[in-house]
Design brief:
The longest helix is centred in the N-terminal third of the chain and has 20 residues, at 10-29. This protein has 2 domains: 3-56, no CATH class; 65-137, no CATH class. It starts with 9 loop residues before the first helix and ends in a 6-residue tail after the last helix. The protein is 68% helix and 0% strand. α5 packs across α6 (87-106). The chain is built from 8 helices and no strands.
Length: 143
């Protein structure tokens, strides 16, 4: 997480980030004798394609501190309203709020409604579409 704050060239950043990713994945693939540790390792091995965007794009933070702070009001609202009545409803709310907060923070001149509509239109065309590229594609400063 401290890599992004270092004053190094992009070339050095990406080289170091790739090395860190390899070390993290080596630890995630190593044998674990405790089921709790194995469960955490499985998060990394099962979702590797979603966890390392910071390796290929220096603008993406390696942590989720800002996202956690942004979602805090939503979490409080969910708790005081006693949450969703089903696991599927809770997951849907979680995904929608994450997408909306991301779009709202980085949408540039485009309205939140317009950016969200474009994503929903794309999902309507392809229900199996991966949300991450759709959200990042709609952002003005995406690569």
């Amino acid at each position: 997480m401290h890599l992004a704050s270092q004053k190094i060239s992009d070339k050095e950043y990406y080289r170091t980030a790739k090395q860190l990713q390899k070390k993290i994945m080596a630890a995630a693939r190593s044998p674990a004798h405790h089921l709790g540790i194995r469960a955490v390792q499985d998060i990394f091995t099962d979702h590797e394609h979603r966890l390392f965007h910071w390796v290929t794009d220096r603008r993406v933070p390696a942590d989720n501190n800002r996202a956690e702070r942004d979602l805090r009001p939503t979490v409080i609202a969910r708790k005081v309203s006693f949450g969703s009545s089903s696991d599927a409803g809770a997951e849907t709310r979680s995904i929608l709020m994450s997408v909306l907060h991301t779009l709202n923070r980085r949408r540039g001149e485009q309205s939140l409604e317009s950016a969200f509509k474009e994503i929903l239109d794309e999902i309507a065309k392809n229900p199996d579409a991966d949300l991450i590229p759709l959200v990042l594609r709609s952002l003005p400063d995406s690569p």
